[in-house]
Specification:
By secondary structure, this protein is of the alpha+beta class. The chain is 46% helix and 14% strand. Helix 1 crosses helix 2 and helix 1 packs across helix 3. The mean pLDDT is 85.
Length: 78
């Protein structure tokens, strides 16, 4: 679910997972695909199913780019 409502747990939403991932990306500037997934799972164990939707949200916002050669995501935030 992208938009939280009164029935959603605040830590189990796409926005929450994207925020966790964004903190890691801002700190490291470049993170491997699997490392980012493992980091999200370590921060919020139930958020693993939200990994790809949160990643899609970050792409749509234009905050990250995927580097195919290195299999990494790079923070390009504005």
């Amino acid at each position: 679910m992208i938009r939280p409502n009164k029935h959603a747990h605040p830590d189990k939403t796409v926005i929450s997972a994207a925020t966790i991932m964004l903190k890691r990306l801002r700190k490291s500037r470049s993170v491997r695909f699997d490392d980012l997934r493992v980091f999200l799972k370590s921060q919020e164990p139930d958020a693993e199913t939200l990994y790809l939707p949160a990643l899609n949200l970050l792409f749509l916002l234009g905050v990250v780019e995927y580097r195919k050669k290195n299999d990494t995501f790079e923070y390009i935030g504005r």
